[in-house]
Structure formats: structure tokens, C-alpha cells
Specification:
469 residues, alpha/beta, five-stranded parallel sheet, two-stranded antiparallel ribbon, 56% helix, binds adenosine-5'-triphosphate, binds magnesium ion
Length: 469
């Protein structure tokens, strides 16, 4: 196993500036949080350049993101997940329960990470043998169109022509067979047969026990049993009629899978998970316990105690082998409305040395969130209504007014951050959404006046806005 590969798959080559620029496409503001995750990612790359003992010594500095609800914590995680070339899992701390109770046990985080890692490494290796697999797939398609002469011999031929002169028969068939193949090959190359239906044999991936044990600490065992059964039972093959185009894909997958060595993949995947894995622990505040409380809180503290060894560095057994957690990067996030970071058990606090605060969002942020991100809300609504032929345009005045209202309601009622924009916009466009198919005038322009007409009353009345917005 060579080091090069690990570098290729586990580490992002982007500079912190480039990572931030990527996050900027989706998240407005929150520069501090973006910078620290970017630095953390770059540190992964840096430690990969180190050698030997030093490399083992440098363990990642975990990050704790703190910010009230709806300011972009989870969104940063989601975008990060798409960006990193390393195994990444995102879990809610609230999903877990103390060992022995119903719910997922925390070790499943590491098992998921290993699973993700295997998928990535496998994908990469399949990519590497892609050309070869595609060639083999093409051959198999040719086999379907022009089977080898021996097999194609008609039953009658076998009866009469039969046993005493097989050699000659084959010699006779050969040129024909070759010519046939050449001819089909040409047509395949020209793409003339793509939609042709052919009958092929495909492997059925039968996983009989999926889901039986999930959600309990038996999970791991379930996996193992499943694998055992999988390897005892013969692989099901099934005849299917598919187009040449799809057959090529299916064959190429099968051939690629045959070309890679799963043991090697597992071995490498474990290393990648150990040195490059990133775990995002969302809603960590929900398992923090305020001093002096009792009852259900005991179990929450238990969850923290269970998380601790994983964050601190321990070994978790997975079906791909034991995974050491020392070098996994943990990013935790929480609103910390009720509890404070200091309500976490001290050992855990100490394992998250980097604290970043996400700012509460203001009018200017809302304005930008409405229109700038690549998936900006306004762009989404425009696209949705365009499917009805409605051409929706927002005037700057409308956007500005909406942002103002959002800030207002967030201040008066509860600060739910950018989520407020979702409720406001939905309410604003309700009428248009409803009548879009029947509209005569397909050009609709939303201006400040329209925003006021639809929303002002609701916003003005505190009672109403608490329910509706
Ligand atoms: N700074 C931001 N820029 C762009 N969109 C944002 C921003 N903050 C929040 N949003 C949007 O608001 C919604 C909620 O954000 P997100 O899920 O990140 O909240 P959160 O901080 O995780 O809150 P919670 O503590 O409730 O989990 C998402 O749709 C997200 O796209
Ligand atoms: Mg969240």
C-alpha cells in the first residue's frame, strides 16, 4: 500500500482561501467559522507532509461552533461535506443514547466513517480500472450479440453434425464469427445499437438482512452476520432485458468490481478514515446538562461520557478492522441556548479547543441570503414558478423590505435566524403559488408595496406573527 494514494484521497489540496471562497458561495457572513474550518482542513494537509513520529504527534484541534439557531452551522457542515475529499459523517448528538439503552451507540459514528471511507476508496479504485473494465464490458456485449461458435451451435446441428467432426465445424465457423463480431463492433462504435434491447445475466446483490439490527448496539453484529451469509450464499444471477447502453454500465461495474481487491480496499480505507476522517457532531448542546438538574439528564451526561473516548482517541472495531480515532477531526456545533459550553463535562470541553461564534444575522445578511447564494431562496422560487410559465421578479425594494421584516420579527418574537426568511417568503408568495397555473399575466413583479400588502399586518400584530411567521 503506498502513501501516495492516501494523500490523493484523504486530503484537500485547496488553500484556506480557496476553501472559504467555496463556502462563500452558499453561506453569507460567518467568516470566523469558515476560516477555522478552512484552517483545520489545511492542517490535515500540512500534517500529511510531516514524517514519522512528528506526524503521529500532531493531532487535529477540534472545533466547537456556537451560534443561535438558523445562522448557518449545519449549512456549513453540509457544504463542507460536499467539498472535502475525505470521509465525512455528520451526526446529531441527540441520536445517541448511553450504551445499553435504546438508540444508537456512539461507536456507530466510527463505523459509519469507515463505511464512507470504504465507499470512497472503492470508488477511486474502480475509477482507476475504468478503462479496462469498459473494454471488458464491450467484449461481453459483443458476446451477447455474437456468441462464441461452440455455444451458438444449434441443437439440431449438434445432433446430426455432431461428435465426430467438431474440429472442422469450428474451423468453418471461425471466420464467420470474427466477421460478425467486427460488424457488430463497428455498429456499436458508431452508437447505432445503444437503444437495442438485449438479454443479459446480471448479479443480484441480495442483502437479506438489511435493517434488521440497525439502531442498536447489535448493529455491528448484524453487519457481520450479513457478510457471513452473503459469502456463504451463492451470488444470485438473474436474466434481465436492458438496453445496450445500460448493459454497458452494468457490465463495466461488474468487471471493475472483479478487478479490485476488496481486502486491500478495506485496509486502505481504515487508514484513510483514521488520518483524514472528519466527524461533524451537530446539536452537541442538546446533550449538555445544566448544573443541578436530574432525571433524563443523567442519560445525556452518559452520552457525553460515551463520546469522550472517541474524541479523545480510542479504538473502535468495525467490520473492516479496528479504527483508531486519535487523528479524526471533530467539529461540533450547537446553539447553546439553554446550556453553555461550560455545561459540557470538563473532559469534553477540553477536547474542543477551538471555539468559534457564529453571529446572529442582521438585515444586510438577510438581503444577501435572499439573493446571493447559489441556491438562494429567491432563485428557488423563481425556478419553481418558471415551471408554470410565470416569470417572477423581485425588485430590490422588495428584498430590502423582506430583510427588514425578518430582522424585525426575529427581534420581537424569537431569533430563528435565516429560517425566518423561509416562513416570510412562503407567506408572501402564497397567493401567487396558488394561482400560478391560472394567471393571465405571466410576468409578476414583487415590489416593496406588495410585500407590505401581504405581510405588514401580520408582522405588526405580535400575536399573529408568533403563529404565522
Ligand atoms: N449565513 C447564512 N447564509 C446563507 N444561508 C443561511 C445562513 N444561515 C442560515 N442559512 C439558511 O437557513 C437555514 C437554517 O440554517 P442551518 O440549518 O445552518 O441552521 P443552524 O445554525 O444549524 O441552526 P440550529 O441550531 O437550529 O441547528 C438553512 O436553509 C440555511 O441555508
Ligand atoms: Mg443545525
Amino acid at each position: 500500500m503506498d502513501e501516495k494514494r492516501i494523500e490523493a484521497i484523504g486530503v484537500n489540496e485547496q488553500t484556506p482561501r480557496e476553501i472559504v471562497a467555496e463556502l462563500d458561495k452558499y453561506i453569507i457572513g460567518q467568516d470566523e467559522a469558515k476560516r477555522s474550518v478552512a484552517i483545520a482542513l489545511r492542517n490535515r494537509w500540512r500534517s500529511r507532509q510531516l514524517k514519522g513520529a512528528m506526524r503521529e504527534e500532531v493531532i487535529p484541534k477540534n472545533i466547537l461552533m456556537i451560534g443561535s439557531t438558523g445562522v448557518g452551522k449545519t449549512e456549513i457542515a453540509r457544504r463542507l461535506a460536499k467539498l472535502v475529499r475525505a470521509p465525512f459523517v455528520k451526526v446529531e448528538a441527540t441520536k445517541f443514547t448511553e450504551v445499553g439503552y435504546v438508540g444508537r451507540d456512539v461507536e456507530s459514528i466510527v463505523r459509519d466513517l469507515a463505511e464512507t471511507s470504504v465507499r470512497m476508496v472503492r470508488q477511486e479504485r474502480m475509477e482507476a480500472v475504468k478503462d479496462k473494465a469498459e473494454k471488458l464490458a464491450e467484449e461481453r456485449i459483443l458476446d451477447v450479440f455474437v456468441p462464441e461458435p461452440k455455444k451458438s451451435q444449434s441443437p439440431l446441428g449438434r445432433l446430426f453434425g455432431g461428435a465426430d467432426e467438431p474440429e472442422e465445424k469450428e474451423e468453418e465457423e471461425k471466420p464467420k464469427y470474427q466477421a460478425g463480431r467486427e460488424w457488430v463492433k463497428k455498429r456499436l462504435e458508431k452508437g447505432e445499437l445503444e437503444e437495442e434491447l438485449i438479454e443479459i445475466d446480471v448479479e443480484e446483490s441480495s442483502r437479506p438482512m438489511v435493517g434488521m439490527f440497525t439502531g442498536s448496539s447489535l448493529e455491528n453484529m448484524g453487519d457481520n452476520i450479513q457478510d457471513m451469509i452473503g459469502s456463504i450464499m451463492p451470488k444470485h444471477r438473474k436474466k434481465r432485458k436492458v438496453s445496450v447502453k445500460n448493459a454497458r454500465k452494468l457490465f463495466a461495474q461488474e468487471e471493475a468490481a472483479k478487478l479490485i481487491d476488496m481486502d486491500e480496499v478495506a485496509e486502505e480505507a481504515v487508514r484513510v478514515a483514521e488520518y483524514s476522517g472528519i466527524v461533524f457532531l451537530d446539536e452537541i448542546d442538546k446533550v449538555a446538562v445544566k448544573n443541578g438538574s436530574s432525571g433524563a439528564d443523567v442519560s445525556r451526561e452518559g452520552v457525553q461520557r460515551d463520546i469522550l473516548p472517541i474524541v479523545e482517541g480510542s479504538q473502535v472495531s468495525t467490520k473492516y478492522g479496528p479504527v483508531k480515532t486519535d487523528h479524526i477531526l471533530f467539529i461540533a456545533a450547537g446553539a447553546f441556548h439553554m446550556a453553555k459550553p461550560s455545561d459540557l463535562i470538563p473532559e469534553l470541553q477540553g477536547r474542543f479547543p477551538i471555539r468559534v461564534e457564529l453571529k446572529s444575522l442582521r438585515k444586510e445578511d438577510f438581503e444577501r441570503i435572499l439573493k446571493e447564494p447559489e441556491n438562494a431562496l429567491i432563485k428557488q422560487y423563481e425556478a419553481l414558478l418558471a415551471t408554470e410559465g410565470v416569470e417572477l421578479t423581485f425588485e430590490q425594494s422588495a428584498i430590502s423590505r423582506l430583510a427588514e421584516l425578518a430582522e424585525g420579527v426575529n427581534t420581537d418574537a424569537e431569533d430563528i435566524g435565516a429560517r425566518r426568511l423561509h416562513t416570510l417568503l412562503e407567506k408572501l408568495l402564497e397567493e401567487i403559488s396558488f394561482s400560478a397555473p391560472d394567471l393571465e399575466e405571466k410576468k409578476v413583479t414583487i415590489d416593496a408595496k406588495y410585500v407590505d400588502e401581504r405581510l405588514s399586518d401580520i408582522v405588526a400584530s405580535r400575536d399573529l406573527s408568533q403563529f404565522i411567521l
